[in-house]
Amino acid sequence: MPNVSVNGITIDDTFAEAFGMRATAIIITAPNRKWARQAAITMTGFATSVIGCGCEAAIDVELPPSATPDGRPGCRVMIFAMGTDELQKQLLNRVGQCVLTSPGSACFAGLEGSAELKLGSALRYFGDGWQISKKIGGRHFWRVPVMDGEFLCEATTGLTKGAVGGGNFFVMAESSAKALLAAEAAVAAIGLVPGAIVPFPGGIARSGSKIGGKYKGMIASANEAYAPTLRGVVRSELGPDINAVLEIVIDGETNDAVAAAMKAGIKAVIELGPKRGAVRISAGNYGGKLGKFIYSLKDMLP
Questions:
Q1: Per the database record, which ranges form the Formylmethanofuran: tetrahydromethanopterin formyltransferase Ftr N-terminal domain (predicted)?
Q2: Phi, psi for residue 144 in degrees, rounded to 5
């Protein structure tokens, strides 16, 4: 299939390639939305890529008091890693350092998975013997004393082995301002898709990479084919009208969640149009050698 044009935007005849991951989710609540978000944002900091962060994490969705276990404002946070042991490590470190420490916070399971990960059952030891076990309606919680009262934390949360990481598409524009506007529209639309996160800053990555590099030990390095400043000195994928490229990377609880997020994001970019946003959309892949999940852009169009 040749490239197609939709609403004046060129859609490359290519595909995004993604891979299997392990994932979990928790629900963080607090006395108000500000502190629920603060705990969630702090916990998901430095979690853009498994390449250097150990995990990928972000807020999936904000929850009203009517949708949380304790009737307070909350956030559902998702965490992705390549293996169960690393996921468990990242979960406990991040909840222990960033949620337990946040004023008024509580933490609950956010996923019913095929297996369980330790949550309060491990963090309870911070109570130094003063922690209290509590079972309510078939769920197990730990009440850990802290200086503003108690940290209520569910004993475990779920693990899924069917998560997918690495869904993506490129937003390509005549200027950096237009690329950013289009990428922001995509991220806003993806934010409405449950079970999918965009882990990079504000959901946007400007440093799309290729595997390896010319320096020893580099796992990933600059994808020079998509760097506008190198056009003319490398084999570039950019035409003369493209001066900025931003990448949207998507992790999903399921294959369907990633596909739904890509469709929502691409639809938003197309609706924004080329005069205000992108003139071309493409995607990153490794020729089908990296992962088993393939998302053809032609199948992601509105």
A1: 5-146
A2: -110, 125
Question: Which residue's structure tokens are 């490239």?
Answer: 3
Phi-psi region of 168 (alpha: psi -120 to 50; beta: other; left: phi over 0): beta
Cβ–Cβ < 8 Å for 286, 211 = yes
Phi and psi at residue 135, to the nearest 5°: -115, 125
Containing H/E element for 75?
strand 74-81
Within a 10 A sphere around the Cβ of 217, how many other Cβ atoms?
Answer: 6
Contacts of 121 (CB under 8 A, 6+ apart): 140, 142, 155, 156
Region for 54 from its dihedrals, namely left if φ exceeds 0, alpha if ψ lies in -120 to 50, beta otherwise: left
pTM beyond 0.85: the answer is yes
- For residue 31, the number of C-alpha atoms closer than 13 Å in the C-beta half-sphere is 7
At how many degrees (to 10) do helices 84-98 and 33-43 cross? Answer: 140
Give 231's strand partners: 234
Q: How far apart, in whole angstroms, are the C-alpha atoms of residue 244 and residue 18? A: 24
39's enclosing H/E stretch is: helix 33-43
- Looking at every residue in the chain, the average pLDDT score rounds to 96
Task: Determine the pLDDT at residue 1.
Answer: 59
Reply yes or no on whether the pLDDT at 112 is more than 80: yes
In sequence order, the β-bridge partners of residue 5 are 10
Tell me: the pLDDT tens digits for 48-70? 999 999 999 999 999 999 999 99
- Return phi, psi of residue 213, to 5°: 180, 180
Single-letter code of the amino acid located at 288 = G
Check residue 288 and give its pLDDT: 76
Q: Is 238 helix (H, G, I), strand (E, B) or coil?
A: coil
